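Page 37, continued from 36.
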């Protein structure tokens, strides 16, 4: 048993199992939203919070849980996170109303936040630098498998066993993961005792909570008043002030036990990798938020068909990651990262160009393949280069920072891309409705134009077959209304996808400043000579 526990690949397999469970659950829940709406008689806003409660707790607590791994050992904290996640899955399966499900999902987010940052410090301790590329390739492959399996496994479970089964499937996986964690992962502890910076935890948690909650809920409240005198801008502003005070407080504690060690920011490659990973969080959600709506609302695909259409990209990413892992052993990861980011941008641009009202689901195949190849060339060098020069004792805080900023990038994309898409859609609906009203009898013209012009205030309806404005019209006229909506959505989608594409190009430009191993060695030699 000791030989198994000391085998790095055995430990990696357990970490991967925990990662697969959390990612699979996330993608499965997305596919089960319509069934949850019906099963719990929930409103759309409540179901959105089933997703957002998870994201909110996850993003807010990553830095703190990474620090807990430094104190109590990443193996032990990982196991605690799996236990919390598994118990929360059971509560989710037993939920009798939307509120219970939202609370259970928040608890799942807590469990995911506790376990997620523990993988990186364990890998940095168990694997030498020259083997980490292959390790990150395994992580990328498993992530791709989870994304692919989500729509198919979720569709099967929901269709045959109901929506509750998407949570009960986590119970045996969670129990197995906890048992294997104690059998196969070594208990790596720091050489000295650490203390938790409770004031830093409070400031970081409150600051991130204000910013992330404000970004998630901003569109719902029209970026105005939430309740009483509290507004979304005030909430975000207060969060930013608290985070600024957190950084000031941490600067005063660098000589003792800070929650956030500023030493990691002295590494140029880590800083640039952090920028790129935040852009990736923004770009991935910024691309797939409009695309998944388009596939179902405009092309009329089912949720499973839409998921399988997009699954080409993670499937290509899986195979590209294996190739990139081998290449990264021979050349600097910088020279994989830059073309990977540009390939992802070009593939996304092709998808944007190919999106029309009458497009076929396979018209996007070249763009999905190209973006998948790009993605496969990004994650491995990104983590390899970003952590290459970091000492092992900083792995925990580095993992917390990387995971947090990636999640912030996704939340920012949800707010910015979502708001921009809705703004462009409101304008396009009005223009298309005015243009199409000439085809209608006089008594329906004003209803069509007014309905679409006010859609942004009454709520967009974006399900398959919807008009986008909830209009009650005769069948032959409803077809015209649906045509207005589909054409308007495509009009709005084209400029919206430019945002993540532009962000990827800027990230590729930032990656040019990453230091190669040879350049870093030369600089160290010069510094040593000067000393």
């Amino acid at each position: 048993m000791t030989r198994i526990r000391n085998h790095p690949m055995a430990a990696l397999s357990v970490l991967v199992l925990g990662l697969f469970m959390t990612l699979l659950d996330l993608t499965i829940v997305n596919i089960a939203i319509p069934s949850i709406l019906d099963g719990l008689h929930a409103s759309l806003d409540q179901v959105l919070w089933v997703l957002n409660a998870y994201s909110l707790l996850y993003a807010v607590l990553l830095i703190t849980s990474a620090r807990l791994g430094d104190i109590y050992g990443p193996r032990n904290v990982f196991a605690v996170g799996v236990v919390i996640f598994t118990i929360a899955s059971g509560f989710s399966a037993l939920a009798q109303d939307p509120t219970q499900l939202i609370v259970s999902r928040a608890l799942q987010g807590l469990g995911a936040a506790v376990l997620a940052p523990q993988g990186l410090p364990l890998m940095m301790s168990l694997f030498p630098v020259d083997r980490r590329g292959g390790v990150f390739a395994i992580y990328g492959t498993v992530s791709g498998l989870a994304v692919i399996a989500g729509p198919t496994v979720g569709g099967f479970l929901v269709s045959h066993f109901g929506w509750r089964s998407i949570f009960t499937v986590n119970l045996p996986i969670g129990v197995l993961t906890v048992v294997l964690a104690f059998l196969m992962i070594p208990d790596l502890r720091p050489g000295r005792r650490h203390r938790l910076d409770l004031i830093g935890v409070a400031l970081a948690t409150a600051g991130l909570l204000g910013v992330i909650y404000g970004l998630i809920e901003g569109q719902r409240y029209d970026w105005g008043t939430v309740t009483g005198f509290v507004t979304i801008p005030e909430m975000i502003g207060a969060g930013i002030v608290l985070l600024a005070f957190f950084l000031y407080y941490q600067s005063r504690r660098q000589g003792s036990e800070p929650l956030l060690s500023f030493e990691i920011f002295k590494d140029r490659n880590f800083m640039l990798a952090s920028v790129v990973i935040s852009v990736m969080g923004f770009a991935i959600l910024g691309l797939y938020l409009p695309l998944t709506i388009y596939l179902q609302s405009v092309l009329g695909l089912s949720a499973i068909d839409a998921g399988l259409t997009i699954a080409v990209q993670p499937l290509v990413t899986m195979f590209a990651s294996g190739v990139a892992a081998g290449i990264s052993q021979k050349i600097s990861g910088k020279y994989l990262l830059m073309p990977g980011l540009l390939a992802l941008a070009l593939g996304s641009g092709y998808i944007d160009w190919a999106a029309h009202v009458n497009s076929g689901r396979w018209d996007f195949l070249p763009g999905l393949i190209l973006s998948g190849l790009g993605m496969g060339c990004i994650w491995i060098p990104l983590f390899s280069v970003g952590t290459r020069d970091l000492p092992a004792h900083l792995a925990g805080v580095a993992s917390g920072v990387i995971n947090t900023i990636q999640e912030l990038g996704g939340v920012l994309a949800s707010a910015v891309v979502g708001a921009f898409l809705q703004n462009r859609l409101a304008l396009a609906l009005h223009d298309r409705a005015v243009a199409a009203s000439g085809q209608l009898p006089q008594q329906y013209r004003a209803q069509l134009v007014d309905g679409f012009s006010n859609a942004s205030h009454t709520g967009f309806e974006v399900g398959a077959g919807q008009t986008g404005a909830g209009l009650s019209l005769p069948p032959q006229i409803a077809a015209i209304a649906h045509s207005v909506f589909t054409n308007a959505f495509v009009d709005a989608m084209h400029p919206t996808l430019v945002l993540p594409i532009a962000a990827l190009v800027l990230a590729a430009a930032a990656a040019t400043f990453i230091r190669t191993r040879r350049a870093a060695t030369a600089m160290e030699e010069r510094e040593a000579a000067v000393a």
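The first helix runs from residue 2 to 5. Flag for discussion at group meeting. Residues 456-469, 527-531 have pLDDT under 50 and may be disordered.
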